[in-house]
Amino acid sequence: AEFGKQWYQRRVRGELLFTLSKDSEIGNSLGGCILFEETLFQNASDGTPMVKLLQDQGIIPGIKVDKGLAPLYGTDDETVTQGLDGLADRCKKYKEAGAQFAKWRAVLKIGENRPSELAIQENAVTLARYASICQSQGLVPIVEPEILCDGTHTLIQCKKVTERVLSATYKACVDHNVYLEGSLLKPNMVTPGMQCTERATPEEIGAATVIALQRSVPPAVVGVTFLSGGQSEEDATRNLNAINQYQDPGRKPWKLSFSYGRALQASVLKAWQGKKENVPAAQVELKKRAFANHQAALGQYAGDVTGASGSDSLFVPNHQY
Fold first, then answer.
1. CA nearest 185: which of 147, 233, 158, 137?
2. How many angstroms from the chain centroid is the CA of residue 266?
3. How high is the pLDDT of residue 3?
4. What is the pLDDT of residue 4?
5. Is 95 considered catalytic here?
6. How far from 40 is each of 157, 173, 264, 284, CA to CA, in Å?
């Protein structure tokens, strides 16, 4: 019964997000949507496939294909991502169901002796193998090596670790013959740890993030879609805006955009509260936040969008999903 209730709530939430009126032009702000396997094959209450609801909005369906984190034994509480077994067959099925891209999340941590070289290399190779398998089945892979924001590390420490992780990831991708022009990167922004007392401005975060990318991401990669990583909605938008406003002509060859979960949905869910009568208000929140991030991806966000959860912290320690 509990599973049935959860299934119903997830379907209702999906309908809330996917059933805006066509004149909402949400597809102008959101280019794609990453679905869980359950949602990819799910129908709305009127029988319309969820995938079609997205396509009708001009939004490309994607699919989360990893199977979660597993301990990387011999390390200090580090992890590697599971799900390579049978991935080619699953990707074929997802493609037939309408998915056009996939994503796989690896997780690394900053701390004493972390990330270890073993964790960096194991996750880099796993990401590269995932990407090559996806491309063999016609899916565009989003490569996501997330460095968690948990900890007291400084902006500079995060920048150095980000450069190490991304450099190893793309070395592995080249070794595995990944077609970089047919892939996307979903990294963390370079920020101080959540428990660090030395905070950074959006301009400092923007500069550190772009420099880390310049030092480690090949220009052949089509685009970079940042994760929000526990930042508040407003912080995630302001920092994306600063990244795009950072002036270094000719050295930002990628599209720098967003792939947010919590920082796109928090105000939506707060407005909705699981109540049918609140769906219109929740959809207004979605349109507002999507448009704000669309503006930030152009470096044109004026900071004038308020939301139900705009400045609330969305940090979850050791975040897993």
1. 147
2. 15
3. 36
4. 42
5. no
6. 39, 27, 20, 24
